Amino acid sequence: MPDRTLVQAVRDALREEMERDERVCVLGEDVGRKGGVFGATEGLQARFGARRVMDTPLAESSIVAVAQGLALEGYRPVAEIQFADYSFPAFNQIVNEVAKVRYRSNGDFSCPLVIRAPQGGGVRGAFYHSQSVEAYYCHVPGLKVVAPSTPADAKGLLKAAIRDPDPVIFLEPKKLYRAGREDVQDGEPALRPLGQARIVREGADLTVITYGYFRAVALDAAARLQADGIEIEVVDLRTLRPWDVALCMESVARTGRLAVLYEANRTGGFGAEVAAELAERCFANLDAPVTRIASPDVPSMPFNARLEQAFLLDADRVTAELARLARF
Amino acid sequence: MTTTAEVEALGLTREQVLTAYTTICRARALDDRRFLLNRTGAVAFIISPRGHEVAQVAAISALDPGRDRFCLYYRDFAAALACGFTSEELMLSAFARPQDPSSGGRQTPGNFGSRRRGVIVGSSTVGPQIPKAAGIGLALRWQGAGGVCYVSFGEGATSQGDFHEGLNFAAIHRCPVVFFCENNHWAISVPQELQVAGPGVAARAAAYGIPGVAVAGDDFFAVYRAVSVAVQRARAGEGPTLIEARVLRLQSHSTDDDQRGYREAAELAAEAARDPIPRMRATLTELGWLSAQEDARIQASLMLEVDAATAQAEAASDPDPQTLFAHVYADA
User: What is the distance between the alpha carbons of residues B316 and B307, in angstroms, rounded to a whole number?
Assistant: First the structure.
């Protein structure tokens, strides 16, 4: 099996799906000759041509609208929004058009497309290259939202998203694009179904539910706490809508303690929904308050490195929070 | 005055023109009935095409339902009829019944959609269909079967960024799209001078390097000619055209609006006197294609049709509340 970074895995998924299905096409800003600002589409235009890998004008609303038009005509477009922060000019197209077309038309129309966008901070990107946008889209019935955290998941889930009959927002953790490598399978065995969380570390004392970049932070904190005799279970949600409530309930029932760890602003974040749902469903099993560990309620990450660090939770702070909760 | 030779030069037969005229009158008769039904409380909300009917049906007559795609907007009631929706279907939509083909009673009765007719389901925000039509046009170009995407909108929509994004994209990629603006000079209560900078909508086409055509929307043959030229261009791979049909809004924006509150009574009366339907009737009479007797027969038959459609829609049951949960996703 080839050794791949996360961004290479994304590219492999696109290439394999384009080879498998000629309806699959890629469009967005700089995705063609340049191969994307992060290199996710590198080499695809040379391989598949300028029609199937199309550089669009710098206008996100029309990137999504054109993708929708293609999907309505039977194509399987994958639109790249260069940074998740730039999805907001397309918000009306995504929320009012793409997400609702099946429901509004009483099932007569559908809109199978994928919108890929790198998100999250810690790369000195400041306000407009650092935001975590999942809560906006997880709120919308009709959309599916995926947030992979490893190369193998990124590949397998992107392949599944492209084949899905409904629109998928695919949020890639840009800080992890080149942060590590793992063996990633080729072809069909690489597929990972949407909607399934995964226990990535087992532990009896406390469940941490997380996704995206924070999976790595949670694992780091869990390793440190093991030295203190605290066994942390880490659940990676992988798909946020629909999310794997059953697996999460099962974990919380065993540990009796739950922290939800997410990079977005604390208030109204998607993790708040996870916390609320599990507090409601697991009340009888809980030994401590369900706790959110999230970013502060300031607009986004400032450019200055020390301010960025002050915003972004690290393993030190997450470890301290988890230790406090474990001893509650 | 229009002559039969001129009309025939457009490729139109008497039969086609009378079919279009009947569709126009059908739209008016149905709309009048819907308005009454709204005032009695039976129908919650409608948007009237009154004043736009001739332009809408003339435009659709220049296209090929079944082959082409139609991204209509909420005032396109007569256009929907021209695309093949029946009186009964549109009454079912007014009553929000489950048999409404556009949405099963889920959307307000102006968001037309029917996959088998190539009518792409509409929504109620202003302008999102414009760049969507560019994408559909791109797909039609790739398919290479000569299909065209028609997209319509009011002049208010030309203030939206989506108008620019859609025209820009379609012009860059020479998408086979006909952009059809029904300029009635009022976006609810805001007049054109507070909405559209510059000489008008058609003039904006120059910025995209595509033809921009302004046409009198009450002249059936002028609209048909302008759209036909645009469709030919599109089918030949020459790209999109922007058409501005100047029309009158002879009814308030919607049944929840009353334009007498912000427009002068004298202006409304003067516009009512310029209703395009009597004008078309006079033209057909002058051509010798429509007698008073035949017109009376058409109107009488439409009244029966409207009565039957209303009775059928009124008698239909409401959707089962359990259907609220259907069609959120493919599997749920």
Answer: 14
Q: Which of residues 139-158 of B touch A (CB under 8 A)?
A: 139-140, 142-143, 149
Global ipTM: 0.97
- Cβ pair B64, B71 in contact under 8 A: no
Subunit contact B329:A166, Cβ cutoff 8 A? yes
Nearest 5°: the CA angle B28, B32, B34 is 115
Which residue has tokens 């208010």? B156
What's this model's pTM, rounded to 2 decimal places? Answer: 0.97
End-to-end alpha carbon distance in chain A = 44
Cβ neighbours around A318 below 10 Å, total? 23
Query: Which positions ≥6 away from B311 have C-beta within 8 Å?
Result: none
Examine the pLDDT at A1 and tell me if it is beyond 90: no
d(CA A66, CA B277): 37
Among candidates A157, A126, A160, which has minimal Cα distance to A305?
Answer: A126
SS in 3 state form for B283-318?
HHHHCCCCCHHHHHHHHHHHHHHHHHHHHHHHHCCC
pLDDT tens for residues B121-161?
Answer: 999 999 999 999 999 999 999 999 999 999 999 999 999 99
Question: Which residue in chain A has the smallest CA separation from B134?
Answer: A66
Nearest CA in chain A to B119: A109
Q: Which residues pair with A54 in a beta bridge?
A: A27
A139 is known as an active-site residue: no
B3 vs A249, more confident? A249
